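Milestone 3.1: sequence recovery, worked example.
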């Protein structure tokens, strides 16, 4: 009922490799002889592999209503930290090594490990229960939000960025139908012919990686990748396009903010002669940051710039749970995810090397083919004919709540990100309601 299949192969292969290199027997008991870095490497192969399985999105943890997929993401973040206690996860590693383990047992151990790794509530006064413990970027009041004011607080808010996570692509792109197969076919086409697009690097890649030149190059390449993949992309997939206006501020932010590169829906058209002429942060599906220097792939340069864009998107889109993005520093790329716990990123890869070139193609095609839930939109809030609504169960009956407008949304990345909407019942339009939505630890009592 809970198929894992060969999902543990990579984890078991790494364990065998570690044991062989240290002349150790490949048994579960050997885990107790391994250091924290080996255990971390094993866990960061196992957990994303389990999270990428479709069943992880339908199984629920024992601690609450959260799915194991969301619990695994939190556990991955915890494992990547320097302070993680690996005794909490050793039982899961041990049972995953065994060939005779039932799938249900593994999922039970996942749930237990995730629950134990949830940070406990801090000892604070009951009157302050559920309030944020540290300042984040939602605390600005009457501010023009200049970068020199926002960035220091945003850096504190994102104090722990977990970068270099293996299997990132599989975790966030793995549910896109046939993406790997299509990407391989498209990349193969790029290497064929008398004038291949890729031969020991991408044809036309601009020397020096100047921003304007890279924007021109990537815009042309994406058109060719789409053409190669066109007959393999279902007609039901929403069409997307590249947005490259790094000098033009996007509407919808308090301070003037422009973004180097990103993706929007194709039906959003720039109309320079109209009053609503600019693209808005509400239009952005994927954020991107370009740097010509490979050494800019650090927290104080490219990462904070990308985080600033993600914050604007989360603030402008009231149904957004997380934001995907990418940094391209020279030819070195990372793929990112920002949510209410902070930010995580893939391993760095060079798009001008064969393996990185294929990963680049898969990333671009993935962004073009993802559905809205994969992009981070809340699937419980439905939009039909321009009207948003949410269905809830109360007193044994289903109620449809029509969302009229946003009252307040906290403009932050990490934190509770409280959102309040004005709403009404579908069958009672004259009686206004307020819907409050926020993030909290699953082991805390619900408010209300």
């Amino acid at each position: 009922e809970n198929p894992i299949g060969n999902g543990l192969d990579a984890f078991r292969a790494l364990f065998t490799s570690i044991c062989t290199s240290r002349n150790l027997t490949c048994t579960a008991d050997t885990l107790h002889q391994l250091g924290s870095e080996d255990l971390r490497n094993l866990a960061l192969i196992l957990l994303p592999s389990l999270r990428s399985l479709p069943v992880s999105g339908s199984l629920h943890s024992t601690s609450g209503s959260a799915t194991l997929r969301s619990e695994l993401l939190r556990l991955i973040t915890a494992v990547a930290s320097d302070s993680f206690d690996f005794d909490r996860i050793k039982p899961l590693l041990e049972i995953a090594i065994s060939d005779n383990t039932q799938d249900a047992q593994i999922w039970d151990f996942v749930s237990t490990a995730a629950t134990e790794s949830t940070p406990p509530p801090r000892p604070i006064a009951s009157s302050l229960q559920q309030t944020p413990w540290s300042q984040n970027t939602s605390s600005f009041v009457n501010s023009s939000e200049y970068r020199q004011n926002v960035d220091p607080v945003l850096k504190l808010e994102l104090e722990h960025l977990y970068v270099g996570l293996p299997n990132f692509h599989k975790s966030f792109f793995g549910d896109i139908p046939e993406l790997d197969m299509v990407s391989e076919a498209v990349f193969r086409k790029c290497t064929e012919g008398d004038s291949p697009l890729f031969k020991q690097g991408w044809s036309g890649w601009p020397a020096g990686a100047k921003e304007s030149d890279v924007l021109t190059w990537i815009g042309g390449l994406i058109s060719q990748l789409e053409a190669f993949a066109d007959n393999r992309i279902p007609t039901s997939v929403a069409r997307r396009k590249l947005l490259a206006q790094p000098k033009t501020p996007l509407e919808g932010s308090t301070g003037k903010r422009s973004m180097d590169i990103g993706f929007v829906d194709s039906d959003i058209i720039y109309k320079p002669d109209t009053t609503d002429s600019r693209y808005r942060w509400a239009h952005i599906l994927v954020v991107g940051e370009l740097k010509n220097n490979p050494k800019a792939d650090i927290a104080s340069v490219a990462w904070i710039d990308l985080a600033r864009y993600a914050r604007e998107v989360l603030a402008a889109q009231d149904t957004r749970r997380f934001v995907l993005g990418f940094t391209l520093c020279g030819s070195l790329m990372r793929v990112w995810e920002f949510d209410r716990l902070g930010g995580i990123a893939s391993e760095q890869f060079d798009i001008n090397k064969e393996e990185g070139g294929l990963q680049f193609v898969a990333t671009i095609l993935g962004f073009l083919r993802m559905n809205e839930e994969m992009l981070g939109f809340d699937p419980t809030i439905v939009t039909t004919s321009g009207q948003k609504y949410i269905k809830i169960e109360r007193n044994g009956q289903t109620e449809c709540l029509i969302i009229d407008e946003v009252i307040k949304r906290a403009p932050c990345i990490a934190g509770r990100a409280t959102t309040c909407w004005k709403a009404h019942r579908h069958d009672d339009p004259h009686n206004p309601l307020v819907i409050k939505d926020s993030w909290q630890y699953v082991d805390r009592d619900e408010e209300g």
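The first strand starts at residue 161 and ends at 165. Residues 381-437 form one domain.
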